[in-house]
């Protein structure tokens, strides 16, 4: 199947870029970007929506929305993860006496490297294969690196990782088991981000830094299209998303925007952005309208521990345009929700993803949701990635 990608457009100035070439940030808006601030001049993948809409009518298929021809995908399959209904006892919605409402879980921890990041890595690896680039580099604190190492191995590409010293040990092992070249950076994630950009300039390679390569965002939309289909071709009322850099949030938003642009759906789901208390830059930005870094991110949910979210601006736009909301959860609330999910649904989720249930419970108490709302929890990472975080 061919790809219906037409071009890239800067989300700030609208300048267009040829999608057959390798582009990262807009050469004008991104000129004064330096690691340590949210990305500027991020590029959006724009498709031939009319043609997609026509073909969807003949046969609905998430691959119609793929930015790269699937023949370039690495052999190891990604996505098409299970979606199923669950009941969580005691979850009272809308402040009424009714309880135990069914909701849907999208279990993306069942991807090959155990996290949602595989959706972005699959597309970036495919883009490299299509452009005959044999080496990919990324900065990551964990799952993005594990994922790129895994899918790069599947495709026979060289993978180079820059990770801060303090990345979780199990994830450092996962990176190395796939034979990726691991550079531990003496510093923060921002320093690793910078090191990966410098490496990209010096080598003939592709950079997978999250939000920076436009297909990291578009790759993260595929779960949204799958949710729409698996939910019986219905847009859910709410999708609950764990948020660090905001790329998953933006990707899900983009999925429902693309469905709308292709004339397939009419409305957008409300997005509930769940963040760890100390890592709440996007939630604060949404509340106040002003951007500030998270001062001192410290949380067991390492995958959403972010000081300077890469897609802060686009994420807040997604929350406003979907009439969504942002909420903070504590580590104790995350740990409690992790056990509830495991006990009542059979899903063992890593702390970042367990945060979705913790956030939903709080949103219910605030009466943000209606009793008949159709809700989907996005479980982004498998619990076995970080068993040390469990509080039995
Ligand atoms: C990266 C990650 C997130 C957060 O995604 P962002 O795009 O950084 O907001 C959530 N859960 C898991 C398991 C992740 O690996
Ligand atoms: Zn621009």
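-> sequence recovered:
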């Amino acid at each position: 199947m061919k790809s219906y990608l037409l071009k890239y457009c800067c989300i700030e100035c609208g300048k267009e870029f040829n999608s057959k070439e390798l582009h990262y940030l807009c050469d004008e808006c991104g000129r004064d970007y330096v690691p340590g601030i949210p990305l500027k001049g991020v590029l959006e993948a724009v498709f031939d929506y009319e043609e997609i809409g026509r073909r969807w009518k003949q046969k609905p298929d998430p691959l119609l929305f793929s930015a790269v021809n699937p023949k370039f995908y690495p052999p190891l399959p990604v996505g098409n993860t299970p979606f199923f209904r669950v009941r969580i006892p005691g979850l009272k919605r809308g402040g009424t006496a009714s309880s135990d409402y069914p909701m849907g879980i999208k279990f993306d921890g069942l991807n090959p490297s155990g996290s949602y990041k595989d959706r972005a890595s699959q597309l970036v690896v495919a883009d490299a294969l299509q452009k005959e680039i044999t080496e990919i580099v990324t900065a990551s604190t964990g799952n993005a690196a594990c994922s790129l190492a895994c899918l790069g191995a599947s495709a026979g590409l060289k993978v180079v990782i820059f990770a801060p010293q303090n990345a979780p040990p199990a994830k450092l092992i996962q990176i190395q088991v796939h034979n990726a070249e691991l550079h531990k950076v003496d510093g923060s994630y921002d320093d690793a981000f910078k090191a990966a950009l410098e490496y990209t300039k010096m080598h003939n390679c592709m950079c997978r830094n999250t939000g920076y390569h436009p297909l990291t965002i578009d790759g993260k939309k595929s779960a949204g299209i799958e949710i729409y289909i698996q939910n019986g071709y219905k847009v859910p009322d709410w999708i609950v998303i764990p948020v660090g850099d905001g790329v998953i949030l933006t990707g899900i938003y983009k999925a429902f925007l693309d469905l709308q642009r292709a004339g397939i759906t009419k409305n957008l789901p409300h997005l509930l952005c769940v963040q760890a208390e100390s890592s709440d830059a996007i939630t604060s930005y949404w509340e106040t309208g002003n951007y500030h870094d998270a001062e001192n991110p410290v949380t067991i949910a390492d995958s959403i521990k972010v000081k300077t979210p890469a897609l802060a601006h686009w994420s807040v736009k997604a929350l406003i345009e979907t009439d969504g909301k942002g909420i903070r959860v504590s580590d104790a609330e995350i740990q409690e929700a992790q056990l509830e999910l495991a006990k009542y649904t059979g899903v063992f989720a890593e702390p970042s993803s367990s945060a979705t249930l913790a956030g939903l419970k709080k949103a219910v108490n605030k009466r943000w949701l209606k009793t008949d709302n159709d809700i989907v929890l996005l479980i982004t990472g498998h619990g076995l990635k970080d068993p040390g975080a469990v509080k039995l």
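Residues 247-261 form the longest helix (15 residues).
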